[in-house]
Design goal:
Layout: E1 29-31, E2 34-36, E3 49-56, E4 69-76, E5 89-96, E6 109-116, E7 129-136, E8 149-156, E9 163-164, E10 183-184, H1 187-190, H2 197-206
Parallel strand pairs: 1-3, 2-3, 3-4, 4-5, 5-6, 6-7, 7-8, 9-10
């Protein structure tokens, strides 16, 4: 599946800025710049807006980014563990080698988002809308996709063990290259999901079926 990449002009020549500077600005907006090595833990920064920019090697642990608006942004080697990013708008964004352990992403909108080699264990996506989203080489162990709406979502070679898709239809979703020992999903929501032959046996076992050679 092809998705739109972040549209960032002069990506290699973006001016460097200090992230903490915006904490004292009224509009809490950053655009057309690059942030490196920022340390911004346990802060509150609701309704921030990030446009057309790069973040590298930044730490935002346990920071409140509720209702954040992120468009045309690349995050590389960034840590958002236990951050609050609920009710957010995230479009044309890439997360590369990032850590989003236990992040609250509930009631958010995702469009053309690529999670690559990223840790999303224990993350919450409940009641979110995901359209054209790729999870690639990403760990989603014990993540929660309660009552989400999926449209063109790919899970490619991901760890999905103990993830929950309660109330979320997986029709047309391909999980065949990903792995799990257990998965929470109803039989009706599993209809039309693309699985491998091995996964089909796993689901049969979950349903209590006895397979006879």
């Amino acid at each position: 599946m092809k998705i739109e990449s972040p549209k960032i002009q002069n990506q290699d020549n973006l001016p460097l800025k200090n992230f903490t500077d915006i904490f004292y600005e009224e509009d809490l907006e950053l655009e057309m710049c690059q942030i490196n090595d920022a340390l911004f833990d346990n802060e509150v920064l609701p309704r921030a807006r990030f446009y057309k920019m790069l973040f590298k090697n930044c730490k935002f642990n346990s920071t409140d980014f509720s209702k954040i608006d992120i468009t045309d942004v690349i995050f590389e080697n960034c840590d958002f563990s236990n951050a609050k990013m609920n009710s957010s708008s995230i479009h044309r964004v890439e997360f590369k080698n990032c850590k989003l352990l236990g992040v609250d992403l509930t009631e958010s909108s995702f469009g053309n988002v690529h999670f690559q080699n990223t840790l999303l264990n224990l993350s919450g996506f409940g009641n979110s809308k995901l359209e054209k989203v790729i999870f690639q080489d990403t760990s989603l162990e014990s993540s929660d996709f309660y009552e989400c709406k999926f449209k063109k979502v790919d899970f490619t070679t991901c760890n999905m063990n103990s993830a929950s898709f309660e109330g979320t239809s997986l029709k047309g979703i391909d999980i065949s290259t990903s792995s799990f020992d257990s998965l929470t999903v109803s039989l009706s929501d599993l209809q039309g999901c693309k699985v491998s032959s091995y996964q089909a046996v796993q689901f049969a076992a979950i349903l209590g079926l006895v397979i006879v050679d």
